[in-house]
Amino acid sequence: MSPQVTLFSNGLVPNPAKIAILLEELNIEYKVINRGLRKEDADGAWSTQFLELNPVGRLPVIIDHTNNDLVVWESAVILSYLAERFSSDGKYAGKSLEEKTLVSQWLLFDASQLAAMVFEHHWYKRMHHVKNLDRSIYERYEFEIYRFWSILEHRLEKQDWIALDRMTIVDIALYPWLKLSNFLELDLSKNPKLTAYITRLEDIPSVKKAYELHFKELAKVCDVAGPSASL
């Protein structure tokens, strides 16, 4: 069967993982094309050909073959698009204006707050060309990550899922970034509700299948702490 969607991905990156999870959850036929992330990768995300799909040169990107080969980029937008197009009952993106607003605000919390802080922490602690930077440079990002975890912990003290009374694209979006706590060498133990929530997401069949098929390397990274781990 021809794929309904093509997903441009990289097996070591959290954002494409969330798209694969939703594709599995929605039972969409899809194929994955992996692309490198370095500028020197001939057919990578920085290549001239790929920049025609996404001028920012980032992953993920999808092509929806059921909708005139529409190209969609930015992971939060892709999640919203797929949920709206392939799940018309609003189960994953919200049924009413109020539900959709709650989903949107938490989706942006993930994209612009939590994920951004995790990446900056990783960049300054592990990837910066100047080694052994003063700890104060990335302590700010650690503080923000812990603060965001406490916000999620407080939310989960009131309900089982972050945005609504059921799993939505918000929970799918959060999972790959929350799984990186060990890799970041940060302590989740003060957030028992959040820890249990991550475990619950981990056991969902669509999450398991997406990681087993396409993100085994990312899963290994999540289990490794310290300087030997790398994204």
Automatic annotation (TrEMBL):
It comes from the Eukaryota. Residues 3-90 form the GST N-terminal domain. It holds the Pfam family GST_C. PROSITE patterns: GST_CTER, GST_NTER. InterPro entries: Glutathione-S-Trfase_C-like, Glutathione-S-Trfase_C_sf, Glutathione_S-Trfase, Glutathione_S-Trfase_N, GST_C, Thioredoxin-like_sf. Residues 96-224 form the GST C-terminal domain. Belongs to the GST superfamily. This is Glutathione transferase. It comes from Sphaerobolus stellatus (strain SS14).
